[in-house]
Specification:
A hairpin with a 4-residue loop joins strand 1 and strand 2. This protein has a 4-stranded antiparallel β-sheet, covered by helices on one side. The protein is built from 5 helices and 4 strands. 29% of the residues are buried. By secondary structure, the chain is of the alpha+beta class.
Length: 162
Amino acid sequence: MEADRLLDQLRAQIANRALFYLAAYDALADAVGAERAEAVLTRAVRLRGRAVGEAFRRFAPADIAGLKDAFLGGLPGGEALFRPDLRRCDEKALEVKFETCPLQQAWCDAGVPEAKRAVLCRIAGAVDLGTFEAAGFAIENRTWTPGASGCCHLTITPRDGP
């Protein structure tokens, strides 16, 4: 089926992105140390998220339902790859926990140890921080940690002030 083939191709492209994050982190960690590597990559990914977030700015300051529809409706591969669990959507917050993540799966498949996967998840999760900050919302992103189920757990709220 064509849809399955396209989903497999998308999964492979996301895995490729995950392996690029891993290679970039390893190269930077060798050059400047692990802590600095995480900080630099997190900043770069967050900046990319800020560019993405401009598309969601029309929902600020408080159209949480519109934000939910646009954000979840624009997930790569629909809901199949990240399996979002909508935990809350009201005037005060949008809360989504992603049950799966093709980035994390690629790191797992590559044999990356859990502690390093947690670092890579924090780096990759910075895209969400930048996205929703630029869109005009506050965000808390609890990324995956060893022993946890699922992946990122986002809570997005209207931001107080500019």
